[in-house]
Write a structure and sequence with these properties.
301 residues; Dna Ligase, domain 1; Rossmann fold; 13 strands; four-stranded antiparallel β-sheet; D-amino Acid Aminotransferase, Chain A, domain 1; alpha+beta; single chain
Length: 301
């Protein structure tokens, strides 16, 4: 009997367009894998969403990114409805999305993190909260949304004159000069290490999702000790947060120390995305990857 999968995509976060691209790619791959697929562009009307999820599908493929879809909210709804879904559960999703919480978890597990503080708009406008260069990040957004690097010699913060783009609090983190690595985790397996380079100031939203915005070298050309540390830390971070299914851990390496930046519990699954790239590198096709994700879908008891 053909299994029915509903693909949740879109939503209303800052990452709506990327989510639609992820959803479209996954819908196509799931159909290629033989599933009966219903794509759903999620709106704010929860009653309409619940109606569209009946009769219950065998599983939900969660292709939402950002707030509501990645922070535990939709996971809680699916738990209530008793519908298995891909990716992490409510608690892991919410902890990974909240950067200060995730940093505390990583530190407790022995994974190196950059120096960081949580600050308010008033504190940052009054004075540099730490020596430059440093990074200002929203505490609970993904895909580098709203990220600003404040460098030595900058006359003003890049957000001045345009209004404060963040919420009540932000993460201020030491900027680590060096290389950017990422590792996809699939269940209990770290797949490989990708070295990401870009001609932009840093690996921002456009570098991630626009064609030609970045170059991915896989496997990363780095000494074996650092390569293995990336794999080990990614798997440890995945387990520390209680993630399941697929996640992706991002790192910076300054030539001496490897620092974890964050874990993405809803990594992108578009044509330029890193997880499908790593899966293909280790011999797992895109249809095989999404099939594995559906086979491992769960909901919290």
């Amino acid at each position: 009997m053909t299994r029915h999968v509903a693909v949740l995509m879109g939503g209303w976060s800052a990452e709506r367009e990327v989510s639609l691209a992820t959803g479209a790619a996954c819908t196509k791959a799931l159909k290629q894998a033989g599933f009966d697929v219903t794509p759903i562009d999620v709106q704010r009307d929860m009653g309409a969403l619940i109606t569209r999820l009946y009769p219950k599908p065998d599983a939900v493929f969660n292709a939402l990114h950002g707030r509501f879809g990645e922070d535990g909210c939709v996971q809680g709804l699916l738990n209530i409805l008793g519908i298995p879904y891909t990716h992490s559960g409510l608690m892991a999703s919410s902890m990974a999305m909240d950067k200060p919480t995730a940093k505390r978890m990583f530190e407790a597990a022995g994974i190196p993190v950059a120096k960081h503080i949580v600050a308010t708009e008033a504190e940052i406008r009054a004075a540099d909260p730490m020596p430059r260069p440093y990074v200002i990040k929203p505490c609970n957004e993904g895909s580098s949304v709203g990220v600003h690097i404040v460098r030595v010699g900058d006359n003003a913060h890049s957000f001045e004159g345009t209004g404060w783009p963040h919420g009540d609090r932000v993460m201020v983190e030491e900027f680590i000069e060096g290389r950017e690595f990422t590792v996809a985790v699939m269940g209990d397996r770290a797949l490989s290490v990708t070295d990401i380079t870009t001609e932009r100031n840093f690996y921002d939203y456009d570098a991630k999702y626009k064609t030609g915005g970045s170059k991915h070298t896989i496997p990363a050309d780095v000494n074996q000790e650092i390569f293995d540390a990336c794999l080990d830390y990614a798997l440890l971070a995945h387990r520390t947060l209680g993630c399941r299914g697929v996640s992706r851990a991002d790192f910076r390496y300054d030539g001496k120390t490897l620092y974890i930046l964050e874990v993405n519990t809803q990594p992108g699954m578009t044509a330029t995305s890193l997880v499908p790239e790593q899966a293909e590198f280790v011999g797992i096709s895109f249809p095989e990857l999404v099939t594995w994700m559906v086979d491992n879908a769960e909901c919290d008891a």
